[in-house]
């Protein structure tokens, strides 16, 4: 049976996000709009910090990657060439009763979240000998009418339970929880089989049909088929379309990457799990272009193979696609560790051959353990040359590169060596269901120093990452106040790099002008270097608690010792650490350098 999923933790995080200004529902005063979210003052800071961290890691710290900022609306032909216009779809069903739309491949996940399913789950297990017929009848005439009014069991309980009893008597007991709900949604098993219940009302769902996820728009003064356009569903295609322009203008050499951070839009059938699955979101994508393995073979005589324990710290000239793919998995893992998401909250799914896109050689999903389940944070795919070849084919424009060193290496081959090389490539391509003729034509271009690069794509969602950082940071602790009363407090233990506010600055008392003046001076000293918050209201303990709740890693208090009450402490402040409550005495002259070191 489905288990009850009262996600109290997620509810607390959502509540905190609204209360403290991290995330609000879009257009909330008009009832909101599903699948769209606005980031408040603190949420906007976290997103900016994460954007900057990604850009710094991928562009600033490397000399083999460059950036792009492309338009949200691209030529319609781009999406035709990429396959999005024809195949970018999810299976959708419609409830015949409440008319709600359901993404069919998420049906069971949605079912498990519903209160009517959870209440039924408590009545009995499908595999037990004593089937809970009486309890089901009582439920149908009671709770069921409010929770799932269109379920067959509720509409016609006697009929549904009668045929169900007959099936159980024949030994056709529901074999698992999913089938149990199919039984309860079906008045009598007919030629078409079971009826699939709507998660929302229990009514009958239609057969799944494809639903294209791209949001349509028009450009120009008249809405017509000729000026139909789409809001981009991903940022990657713009990189492929501009690949040659970037290559020709940037003096880069393969291997190199083009990165982009930007908005994308998908008309999700069932947006869910707060900001995890939205209709408007932000992507951080890198397309890293590498030579095909055959070119590496010609240039270096061998293609290095992946082995367990291989050194992935420094790329080597003879790396093939598999080592590059593993390298980027390691690089992205290190990035997450550097912002506080370590092995305790991450997991990995190495896609099996049957799960891969038809063009992909490999794909790894980096997963995060959200309160609602372990879900994808980033995908790292070895996409081959599919994307560039598609755009080359549909646009009629060459996206091939010329490599003089590759041509020079090919000229050194004897005729026998050339024939042997072509035969090896043909055999390998045959294993991947490609023709011998295409393999021979590919080799002929290679011998001239020409090829279309292959791609490794690390693609991360900024909104998902923001949610992951919030979830990982959320902690509750018991703490005694100044009167000894124990109360529960919320602390967001952000990594200092991601925290929206880095330093809280407090004068001990607001009615002492000399303390306030000194505190303002410290605030002015720090504010141009990191995001600071000045607060002089309330008891100092309450001010600490407010900053703990929004994740501020450090607080600076200006007290009477700062003013020289103890001469040896003149011009020093108290630096409080959020996570352990430790308090250090620090000279104001040394404060900025100390904080900047801790915020790295």
List keywords for this structure.
BirA Bifunctional Protein, domain 2, 4 domains, five-stranded mixed sheet, 23 helices
Descriptive report:
The chain has 600 residues and is an alpha+beta fold. The protein folds into four domains: 8-86 and 216-400 and 452-464, Bira Bifunctional Protein, Domain 2 (BirA Bifunctional Protein, domain 2), CATH 3.30.930.10; 89-210, no CATH class; 407-451; 501-598, Rossmann fold (3-Layer(aba) Sandwich). The chain is built from 23 helices and 23 strands. The strands form seven sheets. It has a seven-stranded mixed beta sheet, sandwiched between helices. A five-stranded mixed beta sheet has the order 20-19-21-22-23, sandwiched between helices. The protein has a three-stranded antiparallel beta sheet with strand order 5-4-6. Strand 17 and strand 18 form a beta hairpin. Helix 3 packs across helix 16, helix 7 (133-141) packs antiparallel against helix 10 (157-169) and helix 18 crosses helix 19 (436-447). It is flat and about 90 Å long. The relative contact order is 0.10.
Whole-angstrom Rg: 30 Å
What general outline do the C-alpha atoms trace?
Answer: flat
CATH class of the largest domain: Alpha Beta
Instruction: Tell me the number of helical segments per DSSP (H or I, 4 or more residues long).
Output: 23
**CATH-scheme architecture of the largest domain:** 2-Layer Sandwich
Low-confidence stretches: 1-5
Biggest β-sheet: strands ordered side by side in the sheet = 3-9-10-16-13-12-11
Major pleated sheet = 7 strands, mixed
CATH superfamily (homologous) name of the largest domain: Bira Bifunctional Protein, Domain 2
């Amino acid at each position: 049976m489905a288990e009850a999923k009262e996600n109290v933790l997620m509810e607390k995080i959502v509540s905190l996000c609204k209360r403290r200004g991290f995330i609000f529902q879009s257009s909330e005063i008009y009832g909101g709009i599903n699948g769209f979210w606005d980031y408040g003052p603190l949420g906007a800071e976290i997103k900016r910090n994460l954007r900057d961290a990604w850009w710094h890691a991928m562009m600033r710290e490397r000399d083999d990657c460059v950036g792009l900022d492309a338009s949200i609306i691209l030529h319609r032909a781009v999406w035709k060439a990429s396959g999005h216009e024809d195949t970018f779809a999810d299976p959708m069903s419609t409830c015949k009763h409440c008319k709600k739309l359901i993404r069919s491949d998420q049906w069971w996940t949605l079912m498990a979240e519903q209160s009517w399913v959870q209440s039924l789950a408590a009545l009995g297990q499908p595999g037990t000998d004593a089937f809970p017929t009486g309890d089901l009848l009582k439920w149908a005439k009671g709770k069921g009418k409010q929770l799932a009014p269109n379920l067959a069991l509720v509409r016609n309980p006697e009929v549904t339970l009668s045929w169900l009893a007959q099936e159980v008597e024949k030994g056709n007991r529901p074999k698992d929880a999913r089938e149990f709900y199919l039984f309860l949604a079906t008045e009598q098993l007919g030629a078409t089989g079971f009826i699939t219940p709507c998660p929302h009302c229990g009514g009958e769902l239609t057969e799944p049909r494809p639903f294209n996820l791209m949001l349509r728009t028009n450009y120009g003064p008249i809405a017509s088929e000729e000026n139909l356009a789409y809001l981009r569903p991903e940022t990657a295609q713009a990189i492929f379309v501009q690949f040659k322009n970037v290559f020709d203008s940037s003096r880069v050499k393969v291997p190199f990457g083009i990165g982009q951070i930007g908005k994308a839009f998908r008309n999700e059938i069932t947006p869910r799990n707060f900001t995890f699955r939205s209709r408007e979101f932000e992507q951080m994508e890198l397309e890293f272009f590498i030579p095909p393995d055959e070119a590496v073979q010609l240039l270096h005589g061998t293609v290095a193979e992946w082995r367990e324990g291989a050194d992935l710290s420094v790329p080597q000239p003879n790396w093939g696609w598999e080592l590059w793919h593993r390298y980027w998995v390691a690089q992205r893992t290190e990035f997450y560790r550097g912002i506080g998401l370590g092995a305790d909250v991450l997991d990995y799914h190495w896609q099996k051959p049957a799960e891969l896109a038809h063009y992909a050689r490999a794909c790894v999903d980096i997963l995060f353990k959200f309160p609602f389940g372990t879900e994808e944070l980033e995908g790292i795919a070895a996409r081959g040359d599919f994307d560039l070849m598609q755009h080359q084919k549909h646009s009629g424009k060459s996206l091939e590169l010329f490599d003089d060193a590759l041509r020079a290496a090919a000229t050194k081959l004897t005729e026998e060596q050339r024939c042997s090389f072509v035969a090896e490539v043909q055999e390998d391509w045959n294993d991947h269901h490609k023709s011998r003729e295409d393999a021979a034509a590919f080799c002929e271009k290679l011998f001239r120093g020409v090829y279309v690069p292959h791609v490794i794509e690390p693609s991360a969602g900024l909104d998902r990452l923001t949610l992951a950082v919030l979830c990982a940071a959320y902690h509750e602790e018991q703490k005694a106040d100044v009167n000894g009363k124990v109360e529960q407090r919320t602390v967001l233990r952000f990594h200092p790099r991601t925290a929206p506010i880095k330093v809280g600055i407090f004068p001990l008392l607001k009615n002492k002008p000399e303390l306030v003046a000194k505190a303002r001076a410290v605030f002015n000293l720090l504010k141009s270097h990191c995001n600071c918050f000045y607060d002089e209201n309330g008891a100092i303990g309450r001010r600490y608690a407010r900053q703990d709740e929004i994740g501020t890693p450090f607080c600076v208090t200006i007290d009477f010792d700062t003013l020289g009450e103890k001469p040896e402490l003149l011009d020093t402040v108290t630096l409080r650490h959020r996570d352990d409550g430790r308090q250090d005495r620090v000279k104001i002259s040394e404060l900025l350098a100390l904080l900047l070191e801790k915020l790295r």
